[in-house]
Amino acid sequence: MKRLRRGVFVDPEQWQSARLSERHRAFAAAVGLTMPTLAFCDVTALSLYGAPLLIWPRTVHCQSPHRSRSGRFTTPCFPLHIQHSPGALPGGASGAAGRPQGQAALPAVSLPVPGITYEDGEPVAVRVQSLPRVLISTLPQLPRQEAIVILDAVMAGSYVFGRAVTGDALDHAEALHRGRNMGEWRELRAFADPRSESVGESRSRVLFDELGFEPPKLQKELHLPRIGRVRLDFFWDDGDAGVVCEFDGMIKYTRGLSGIAAEDAVKQEKLREDALRLMGLRVVRITWDDLGSPQELGRKLLAAGVPHRALRRFQAG
Prior knowledge:
Elements (H helix, E strand, L loop, with lengths): L1 E4 L2 E3 L1 H6 L2 H15 L4 E2 L1 H8 L10 E5 L6 E3 L6 E5 L17 H4 L3 E9 L5 E6 L2 H8 L5 H13 L10 H10 L5 H10 L7 H12 L6 E8 L3 E10 L4 E6 L4 E2 L8 H17 L2 E6 L1 H4 L2 H11 L4 H8 L1
């Protein structure tokens, strides 16, 4: 058996074949079992909530109310970073002068680690900072695309934990937050939109903005003759006509596409695209490759007539 922490073991073949995400969560579970007063934070907390991370952390991050346990430690599995947080007192205790601090005001939650169980199949639970607190303190430190992917998903409830983070919860966490980067956080929150339905759509929105394009309408529904209602990933109305942009070429039926063979789906996609063009709309498709080549993406969108902020200013002048 492979030892993760004292008294915590895992099947060596399972460990060897596991993905980085699975190893990271397994080691975090082992740390939580052997040091139960810790609360996981930062990107490790996001991973335990099952948020869609673009880059998986290679360090396990947590907080301890005990200064003697803080520091950076090298282990055979992952580096372990334990931050000292005087407010991270279990049981909702208070800090100096009886005033709630840190996690005492937003208490840590007991969370089952996704995909990690005991031998009998029971889930392993560990203490994790509240998700609104994690979002506010962590997302401003991440690349903008990844931050928006995560924030779109958790606001929609489209992640493993599955509970949508509400505006009221974020307001409450903001009022208690004493850290830095609040300007960056507020910009991220203002840009986030739970109507983005995939990682690709969220990344696309960030690139549209960074390339200078006008913000699109999301998930606009149209009725197509002989086809029915469809939902579009992105839509721009430029006055004379409109531009439809679909990520990965998938126009979504409101009634779904379950059970349709691949060749039939391709045929129906072509029929829908033809129907959109017959309505006078321009259609552009973008793929994962486009997201990796912003300049090519920009040229594709300009050629399709997607409204651009610089061109608007030029035309207005």
